[in-house]
Design a protein that fits this description.
homodimer; alpha/beta; Rossmann fold; two-stranded antiparallel sheet; 6 helices; globular
Chain lengths: 180, 180
């Protein structure tokens, strides 16, 4: 199937929830896609197809929704999975990276032994918005002297230009949303 | 392979982190198991083997670590996945269930359309401790007039007797820890 057809079909499985988490935001609710076993399979297999075109030693993703596609993809590719978490959630020694929010900053952490020097790591999340969280995740991987094979998303809010922030890293998204 | 041998081998992949999240607690760190693609596969396939002995229409799990095995298992069984989340994380209409913590209470939420009446739902998490969160998850499923096929865990802290709390629901755990 052509990627455009798959994007259209899976895009129809996503629910728009108006005014969440605050007025004026159209939230992209992926739970309706996840509820459909065939759609969840197709989305995961599209991601896996991208990954198979390159070397991927490990999949990493940021909690909580990122864990869903991250774990599914690691199993599909038969690799290990490296969870990246909010502060104080990981029990062992960690490194941290901060990123900007609309008001203030937040940070994400990864275990120091989650990825190994020289590894090629695929990063995955459900949605690319401003790209701040994913950029922080990339930096965690790169600080461990591993490389980012690509950043892969189900949905890209293209008008927020998160892809530019992740450049020059390779970025893929199945479903592109062009306006708010 | 006998289940005892698998439990021993995968148990060796789990890291004990002393004094996390507070002094006196030996935290079971599953990230070292997840980092090993073969171990992650074997753990998921053990869970899938239990599921195949019964009807499972859907897999559900509580964030965040529960999403890892939940998503992997839904893909392995080719079913949909229903995320259960902390308050105010899910965008659509939800139902909520509270559970007791050491000090105070917390709650978990599920979308009203996450499971359908009459469905048989497999609940999964990495670790069974007191069972409070999993019991709340079971009640969410049952309030939607679906049934709990079983509660499946990688690790059971048997001395906390969470299994009793989940009774009469079927409960399985691969790795049993008998003392603190």
């Amino acid at each position: 199937m052509r990627q455009e057809d798959l994007a259209t079909r899976l895009g129809e499985k996503i629910r728009n929830v108006p005014d969440f988490p605050k007025p004026g935001i159209q939230f992209k609710d992926i739970t309706t896609l996840l509820a459909d076993g065939a759609a969840f399979r197709e989305a995961t297999q599209w991601m896996a197809g991208l990954a198979r075109a390159k070397r991927v030693d490990r999949v990493a993703a940021v909690e909580a929704r990122g864990f869903i596609f991250g774990a599914a993809l690691a199993r599909e590719l038969n690799t290990g999975f490296a969870p990246i978490r909010k502060p104080r959630k990981l029990p062992y020694k960690t490194i941290a990276e901060s990123y900007s929010l609309e008001y203030g900053t937040d940070s994400v952490e990864m275990h120091v032994d989650a990825v190994k020097p020289g590894e090629s790591v695929l990063l995955v999340d459900d949605l690319l918005a401003t790209g701040g969280t994913m950029l922080a995740a990339c930096r965690l991987v790169e600080r461990q002297k591993a490389s980012v094979a690509a950043c892969v998303f189900l949905i890209e809010l293209a008008f927020l230009k998160g892809r530019d922030k992740l450049s020059p890293r390779e970025t893929h998204a199945l479903i592109r949303v062009d306006s708010e």
